Predict the 3D structure of the following.
Amino acid sequence: GDATKSKSFLERALVLEETHYGKDHVEIASTLVNLGNTYGALGDVFNDYDILPRTCEAVLRGVCAGKLRFR
C-alpha cells in the first residue's frame, strides 16, 4: 500500500480515537502499532521512537486487561 496515505489516515484515526476513548485507553493500541509500523516503513524514526513508549503501554494494558491477545 501507499505508506504516505496510510500515515495520514492513521494520524487522523488516532486523533478521533483519542478524542473518543482518551489518550491512554487500550482501544488505541492497534492504531499506535500500525502508525509506528508506517513511520518505520517511511524511515521516519523520530516519530516512530516518539510513539513507541505509548504503544508499548497501550499494548501492555490491553494484554493485562484480556482485551489483546498474541497469536
Observations:
- DSSP finds three helices and no strands in the chain.
